[in-house]
UniProtKB/TrEMBL annotation:
Residues 23-252 form the ABC transporter domain. GO terms for molecular function: ATP binding; ATP hydrolysis activity; transmembrane transporter activity. This is ABC transporter ATP-binding protein. InterPro entries: AAA+_ATPase, ABC_transporter-like_ATP-bd, ABC_transporter-like_CS, ABC_transpr_LolD-like, MacB-like_ATP-bd, P-loop_NTPase. Residues 1-12 have a biased composition (Basic and acidic residues). Coiled coil: none annotated.
């Protein structure tokens, strides 16, 4: 994969009909209700927060995109939509050519399982399982045999430099190691899209850089989208989409 990276990294023109377009948003808005009992809702109109407001973007296979912006600017909301964990209030989100709003919740689950790997800031590993067990988990619902799951998990752990830690539980691993297990788990099904929400947010600079190395290495063969505050991530991305108050203020 290494040799084709620089070619593929030149920014492709992305279009929904183009098979290279992995992710697309068109005039997407997402509103949250404040909730009936909220402080903000007493006696007023139906109170909503507009977390995203008219976001349009396309991301192609082979791109490594950072979503930057201050806290509360809508980064996580956008990632949830791109990961088909959520649907927009208005507008369209297309993942690997499929309009997410046209899917039932069950179909969205299948789309996520087959197409998307997700990495969270707080790792979200199961504490009772070994690193290998955590990485192999997504393969169970895909019906992969135990033997093949184990072999595939070990292969992925090897790739993220944790071949000798496969039997350790998350509690026995450092933060950076846990995040690399989470990356291995996100990639175990070889998804077309990798989405990471502040993956280096809990890590010191050096550990964060190492985690970033693994994310970057995988970007030539899929679309990678990372929400971040971290300048190291922003510096290494092919493209930076900046959000402010739910609006794209720059995309370059
Ligand atoms: P970021 O990830 O950039 O910090 P978020 O997408 O988490 O931003 O949040 C964007 C805005 O939407 C913020 O004003 C936040 O308070 C609001 N918000 C996010 N999630 C919810 C929710 N589940 N319910 C209500 N408001 C929310
Ligand atoms: Mg966030």
């Amino acid at each position: 994969m290494a040799d084709s990276v620089s070619e593929q990294r030149s920014r492709p023109a992305a279009d929904a009909a183009d098979p290279a377009t992995a992710l697309r948003c068109e005039r997407v808005a997402r509103e949250y209700s404040r909730g009936r009992d909220s402080l903000f809702s007493r006696g007023g109109d139906a109170p909503t927060v507009r977390a995203l407001d008219g976001v349009s973007l396309s991301i192609a296979t082979g791109e490594f995109v950072a979503i930057a912006g201050p806290s509360g600017s809508g980064k996580s909301t956008l990632l949830h939509l791109l990961a088909a964990l959520d649907t927009p209030t208005t507008g369209d989100v297309t993942v690997a050519g499929t309009d997410v709003r046209s899917l039932s919740s069950r179909q969205r689950t299948t789309l996520r399982r087959d197409t998307i790997g997700i990495v969270f800031q707080h790792f979200h590993l199961l504490p009772a399982l070994s690193a290998r067990g955590n990485v192999a988990l997504p393969l169970i619902e895909r019906g992969v045999s135990k033997r093949d799951r184990r072999a595939r998990a070990d292969e992925l752990l090897e790739q993220v430099g944790l071949g000798d830690r496969a039997g350790h539980k998350p509690g026995e691993l450092s933060g950076g190691e846990q995040q690399r297990v989470a990356i291995a788990r996100a990639l175990v099904s070889d998804p077309a899209v990798l989405i990471a929400d502040e993956p280096t947010g809990e890590l010191d600079t050096e550990t964060g850089q190492r985690v970033l190395d693994y994310i970057e290495q995988t970007a030539s063969e899929r679309a990678v989208v990372v929400a971040t505050h971290d300048d190291h991530v922003i510096d290494r991305a092919d493209r930076v989409i900046r959000l402010r108050d739910g609006i794209v203020v720059s995309d370059a």
